[in-house]
Amino acid sequence: MKSFPLLNRLSKYTIRQQLYIIYFPIIFLFTLLTGFLLVSESQKKLTESYKELSALNAQRTKSIVFDTTNKVFNGAESFANDAELRKILSTNYSSTLEAEKEISHYNLFNQLTNLDTSIKSLKVYTTNPTISNYQNFVKADSEILQTSWFNKGLQTADVFWLTSASKVNNMKKIYHNLTLYKAIPLPLSNYSAILEIKIDYNFLKNRLSSNNYGIQLQLNDDPLFYSNIEKEVGSQNKFDTPFSENYYQSEQFFGKQLVATNAILLSNKTDKIYIYSIDETSYSALRANLIKWLIILAFSLLTTTLIVILFSNFFSQRIQDLKNAVHHASIEDYDYLIKDNGQDEISDIFLDFHTVINSILTKD
After folding, report:
1. Spatial separation of the C-alpha atoms in residues 122 and 127, rounded to whole Å
2. Separation between Cα atoms, residue 158 and residue 268, nearest integer Å
3. What is the pLDDT of residues 185-212, one digit of tens each?
4. Backbone torsions φ then ψ of 56, nearest 5 degrees
5. How confident is the model at residue 243 (pLDDT cuts 50, 70, 90)?
6. pTM score, whole prediction
7. Which residue of 33, 74, 84, 120 could cross-link 198, Cys pair, CB 3.0 to 4.6 Å?
8. Predicted local confidence at residue 173, as pLDDT
9. Which whole-number Å values give the CA distances from 307 to 20, 23, 29, 157, 242, in the listed order?
10. Which candidate, 222, 198, 197, places its Cα nearest to that of 77?
11. Which 8-state DSSP code applies to residue 134?
C-alpha cells in the first residue's frame, strides 16, 4: 500500500465512509457528467431537427413565391412587348366610345387573369387623355401622376416591385399587396403608360398555409405584405435578421420562436423577398424534452444513491458485527456469537472465527 498513498489515507475512515468517498466523486459525478452529455446531445440533435424542418418549410415557401412572381414577371414582359396594346395606348381617339370599343376587343388581360389565379388586379395607367377609365385601363389623373411609383416607372424601363397599401370599397381595413410595376414603352407617342399587377393575398394564404408553421413575407425593407396572422400584415418585420447583399439563410431562436429565414432575388435582379418561417411549438417541445431527460437523470442518480447507501449500510453492518465478535472474544466472552448466512469472503471469516472460538472452548 506504500505505493498508493491515497489508498492508505482511505484506511483512516470507516468502511461506510470509504464507500461514500469512492461513490460520490467517482460514480456519482461520472453518472452526472455522462447524463448531462447525453441530455446535451439529445437537445442538440432535436434542435437541429427542428431547424432543418423549419428551413425546409422556408424553402417550400421560397419555391411557391418564386414560381408566383416569375409568372407575373413573364406576363408583364409579354404585355410590354405586345404591339396591339401599344397601339391602343398610343392612339388618339375621337371619342370615349371609340376608345372603349377598341379596348373591348383586347382580351389578353382577361386571358392572363383567368389562367393565373395569383393575380388580384391588373391595370394599365395611361396619360392618354382620350382613354377613359374602362375595364383594365385607368386614366392617370393628377393624384396618380404625383405618386412615387408612377414617377419611378417613368424613369426606369425595367420591372420593379413595391408593397402597395390600399382600401377596398372605402373600408377601414388596409390591404398590403405585393405589386409589380412595368413601364410600357410607347416610342411613337408622347404618352406614357404604367402596368400594375397586384398579387392576391388569399392566393398566397391558400398556397402557404401550414398547421405547424407561421409564414411572413417582406419585400426589401417594406412592411410585411404577407403573414399567416392577418393583423401583422403592414407592420415591420420584428426579427432582427441581417440582410446580405444577394442571399442569406439562417435558423435561430427569437425568444420562444424558432425562425428560419430565406430570400429570393427576383427576376429584375434588384428586389428581394425575405421569407420568415416561424415555428411556435419547437421551444416548448425542446423544453419538455429537456425536463423529461433531467427527470430521468435525477431518478437514476437518486436510485443509484439509495442502492449504494443500502449496500454500504449492509456491508458496514456485517463488518461491525465481526468487529464486535472479535472484541467480545478478546475479553474472553465466548458466548457472543453472530450468525452470517452469506457465502462470500466475510461469511467465510465468520465461519473461521466461530471455528477458532469452538477450538478455544474445547481446549478449555
Report:
1. 17
2. 7
3. 988 788 999 999 999 988 999 998 877 8
4. -65, -35
5. low
6. 0.76
7. 120
8. 65
9. 12, 11, 16, 82, 54
10. 197
11. B
DSSP per-residue letters across 21-88: HHIIIIIIHHHHHHHHHHHHHHHHHHHHHHHHHHHHHHHHHHHHHHHHHHHHHHHHHHHHT-HHHHHH
Q: What is the pLDDT of residues 39-83, one digit of tens each?
A: 888 888 988 898 888 889 999 999 999 999 999 999 999 998 999
| Distance, CA of 280 to chain centre | 8
Return the beta strands (E) in 94-212 as ranges: 119-126, 137-139, 160-167, 174-183, 193-199
Q: Kindly report the average pLDDT of the chain as a whole number.
A: 83
Which residue is listed with cell 447525453? 38
Pick the range with the lowest mean pLDDT from 21-25, 138-142, 191-195, 340-344.
340-344
DSSP notation for 197-214 = EEEPHHHHHHHH--SSEE
**Residue 334 carries which side chain, given as an amino acid letter?**
Y
Hey, what's the cell of 102? 377598341
- Between residues 170 and 232, the one the model is more confident about: 232
Report yes or no: 251 and 55 within 8 Å, Cβ to Cβ. Answer: yes
pLDDT digits (tens, 9 = 90+) for 298-313: 888 888 778 777 877 7
197 within 8 A of 229, measured Cβ to Cβ: no
Q: Is 333 exposed, middle or buried (0-12, 13-18, 19+ CB in 10 A)?
A: exposed
DSSP character at residue 238: -
Give the single-character DSSP code of 232.
G
Q: How far apart are CA 277 and CA 241, in angstroms?
A: 13
Structure-block grid coordinates of residue 289: 424534452
Residue with cell 408583364: 76
